[in-house]
Amino acid sequence: MKTQLVSVFLILVACSLSSFAQGSTPSINSMPPVVVKTVPESGARDVAAGETEIKITFSKAMTDNSWSWSTAWQNSSPESIGKPKYDAARKTCSMKVKLEPGKTYAYWINSAKFQGFQDREGHPSVPYLLIFETSK
Question: Which structural domain range is residue 31 located in?
Fold first, then answer.
């Protein structure tokens, strides 16, 4: 499964960068947005259970009311409390959730199938796996 995920990721990156093979000059505006920070941090193993807010910060401003919090596997995502929302700068998207103790949670932030996280020019974000565990 890990090999499949890496393959999907590499294909998406290659597609995102294909315009540069055609001679255009790279710039931050022409590149797809990327995740630069998450709360909790991906890979964290001691996240407190209970109600909390998951935050994803991107490299540039995103399209409002557009996102793809995709489950990584069946029941990998926590119970959401309300709807996701962006901050005023539209660089950080947050969602309130309820976390249970002793569980592993994961979201694909965009994926091969779902690409709702897009910058204001319509470039989909490079897929990112947010995975963390709650303490017991």
Answer: 2-133
